[in-house]
Task: structure prediction
Amino acid sequence: MSDYKTISLLITALGGEGGGTLMNWIIDSARSQKLFVQGTSVPGVAQRTGSTSYYIEICDRNFHNEKEPILSLYPKPGRVDIVIASELLEAARVLEKGYINPDRTTLITSSSRTYTNLEKSHLSDGRFNHEKIINTCKKMSKNFICLDLNSMAIEHSTIVSATMFGALAGTGILPWKKDIYEDVFKDNIFGKNSLSGFNFAYQQVQSISDNTLIGKTNINLNNDSKINNINESLSDEFLSIINLGKERCTDYQNNKYSELFMKRVNKLTSVIDKNDAKIISIAENIVRRLALWMTYEDIPRVAQLKIKPDRFIKIKNEINLKKNQIFFVQDIFKPGLNEIGAMLPNKIGRWFIRNKKLSTLLPFVGKGMKINSSKISGFLILKTLSSFRFIRPISLRYKEEQNNIDKWIDNIIISLSHSISFSEGLADMPQILKGYGDTWDRGIKKYNKINDALIKNKLHSIDEKDGAILKEAILISMNDVETEKLDIFLQKNLK
Amino acid sequence: MERSFKKEIEALKLGEGDIFEGEGILAVTKALLQSGVSYVGGYQGSPVSNLLDVMVQAKDYMNELGVHVEACANESSAAAMLGASINYPVRGAVTWKSIVGTNVASDALSHLASVGVLGGSLIIIGEDYGEGSSIIQERTHGVALKSTIWLMDPRPNLEIIVRTVHKAFELSEYSHTPVMMQLRIRTCHLQGKFITKNNIKPKISSTNKVEEVAPHNYDLIAHPPSTYAQEKLKYGQRAKLAKTFISNNSLNEFFEGEIKEVGLIVQGGLYNNLISALKELNISDSLGNSKISIYVLNIVHPLIPEEVITYARKFKAVLIIEEGQPQYIEQELGLLFHKEKIEVSLIGKDVLPMAGEYTTEVIHKGVFNFIKQYIPNFSSFSNLDYNIEVDQLREKASSSLGEIVPPRPPGFCTGCPERPFFAALKMIEKDTGKIHVSTDIGCHSFATFPPFSFGQSILGYGMSLAASAGVQSFSSKRPIAIMGDGGFWHNGLLSGVASRLLNNSDGILVILQNGYTSATGTQDLISTPESESRKLAASSSSTSSDKTIEKALEGLGVKWLKTVHTYEVGSVKKVLNEALESSFKGLKVIIAEGECQLERQRRLKPIKNNAIKMKKRFVRIRYGVDEETCTGDHSCIRLSGCPTLTVKPSTDPLKLDPVAHVTDGCVGCGLCGENAIEATLCPSFYKAKIINNPNLKERSLAWVRNKVIGLLS
Result:
């Protein structure tokens, strides 16, 4: 019935990112081409970091002195031509709502993630599956363009709207040329940066041949040195994990300590079937967690890590230090009574923790301490603290931890002959032990609860069903800070 | 407010035949000036904040025109402003967010409507309903009905909206009745265009003052016995005049279609959505040439019985597309058809949902089910598969994603001064157990979302203390009421504080003083720091310089009053504990001050740019996390929720869980460090002080330190 076409465009972004700016740029460009255009949005309070959306319809001509088309204020599911997302999960949200149609929609999204509070608050890993979003995007869109638009924006000191705008221009879908897009930056004080971000994203999209480009992070495992005492039949990956653990223990304490690590590893690898992929993957997990547990972070360890020369290089990179800048680092500590007692020799440590009054004599106990690690005095304090590691083997905590570790390894070895699933759960148990101070105390509490209810004295009668229960218990304790739900669950499944 | 509306102000000055291109709410602002308003007032709130913000900033131009602009303390004072048009032939307009603002204004509105007006009185309502809304879901329609205020609901098209503003003033004057114009969220933010007219300087104005006071006329006072006569006037003469005006000026629109069986009646504001839905059904083209007849109600109250009857008589059935509940229009039409014995099936909420926003998709479903029932051969011309297609798209996407996409509600900005307060409260609850928290409206409402999840109730803007009065009486542990400085001045001072003092009762009130009504766009308050203090504070917090709230409370007789800086989490904890445990039985008020970070960052920007340009010394603080010492428990995040405190994959192959990470967006508010100490978190956080263009002394000292530390390690 009508003699013109419209292009519909949905922008989705987080509040404060400049989605409205992008909408206005697109509208300005269309207006400069004398095309009839309409746009609207629902930012409201969502402008404070919530998810927001902007919707535009552009006609392929103008309506001068004639009846103007009635354009929609809402995107229609399945009828959107272009979707631009500033963040990957927001692309998923648009997918979920049915706006993306494989016969019609060009989907441009940043591959970057800004995690929601629910995802990042999780006690272990609550992140939405990245791959699943990418796969769904590929499957559900006509054209799919996925670039890290956020990093590009940072690199060019501009906002993500500029790189989103560049990526949009790069697709060539809208009926105007590149220089028209560029015009919006002319009157802008930050125009130069925006323009360079715009151009970069534009070129990236233009140079994509198969129209998908996804940045991948590869974790390089250290594979250099040979490992002794280990059965040669283990895979390279497994060996490299063992090697890493060994090195870490040496760094943590000394060679003798890394031998203790290897002794525990050998104890484990000597009883497992090295051809069973499932068992191997459990064993890998055990070795990983063993290395982390053995290098538990007490005051000397933290101090040692804080003054490593490569730490300052890392910080320099992280804060992106430039030529005309210098920087200072201040570390924030709050050593509690228990932590100080834990690093003292066994008996002194116990006495110290018992005599709470003593702590009032030491001004830093239970108080916040700010140490300037990049100043000489601060550095020396940390250096002194780190040297307490030499008496670690006779410290209070050392004894406790080694006992628990041995018990854990022994339990796993028994469990491996009864139930794979239960062993899998057991391997994950140290995951519950995390952090310092209150966090650590909370973890220990949960660990002991599960241990008492499901593991202790029960290992010889376990089956696969018990494995599922153990895993569920671990999951519950990782999903919730409080122990209420865990208590109820354990009560119900008490053996 | 530091945001600049320079470009928007220029658009207000456009003259005869120019083209205005911009946002809906600004088009309304321009239309007010074209109508010759004498005064404008209002209270901020999405989606109408910009109307007032722009006018306040365009002070010089408004003075030139003689238009008085008032940023009112609440909607009640805005509504009462319209009283000027009772006695004088002046046009006035006020604006606020509805339904909440209308509720606050309703006392003044009732009185205004009872008396009636001489000069045109227009209330511009931001109907904050549906997706993106931040308030309770109610219709303004009910208020218009009960107070006899005419309600316009124009088509979302700038040309039409501007015309409606002009007509609204005429209607108001012709019928001596105040008029409301409701604009939905998407309409307020609608980017479109219209051809402008010259602005009109009002005849009576701040530059052209009246010499004579209006005579005392008891008929114009909302007090008995006048009120009895006024009620008769409302339903009699004024309603009749309004209907005549609306019908003579063809304010409602008829679009005739070829289909004979059925007709549609739609609220003007939903017209575009309807056309979009009809397009999907192959019933209309984009120009609005529809096969089904449409009667567009640009005025939803009063309805014009003659128009409706003539229209309805033609059809077997009519569908009324009316958003929200109760379905007032449907009820009125039903009664009218019944009384007039019109043989037509009236369909409405039978095929459309009772509650919720009428998006294109919702209207499509409703119209589809309607025509299926009443047009026998509908399948010969209509598209039947759209709903199935959409369901399949969603099903396919959801199953491929595997889980439900987690919600992303709004939250505190990076470096927000309110976040540390809630972190402190969360820590305190670990020792005291759960505390009953009455929350309020404002940015701090975001503390109701994870990771804080605080609050047992929200009862309105500035209502938290009043809302905890009853709870206080039967709780063994003291409840806490939290409100912002915005809420305090809007209502909390009287409804909460004065009431508590009057009764000599116990209670804890926390006022989060960030210096502005930040959630609505950082508008100024009576307690906003003086611009001189803000300048002095540069990019640091300046709220401690203003003592208006303290003085007001002391003046009222508050005996227990403590002020604390929110970023000092330890001090906040201490003062909260004191209030909870105090033996003092009266009202305890804690003012937790810390300036809105948005404003601070806006001030910082030019300072920083200048320093970089001039190669001057400039210090930046940011925080970071040492990956090696982070164990991935994320308890720091659960006490913060800061956008820049997030997670990233660990680069340590032994660690599988993501580690905490501070992005470069960090503004160095210091909460991470405070939390690490106060909650005994972990020693992973570091504070980095980055000095741009350091002086020679700093340079040499840094060099020496590096050398010495290099040797020592």
About this structure: The beta strands of chain A are 6-14, 37-41, 51-59, 82-85, 106-110, 143-147, 325-333, 369-372. The radius of gyration of chain A is 29 Å. Chain A has three domains: 6-207, 236-250+268-291+404-492, 299-394.
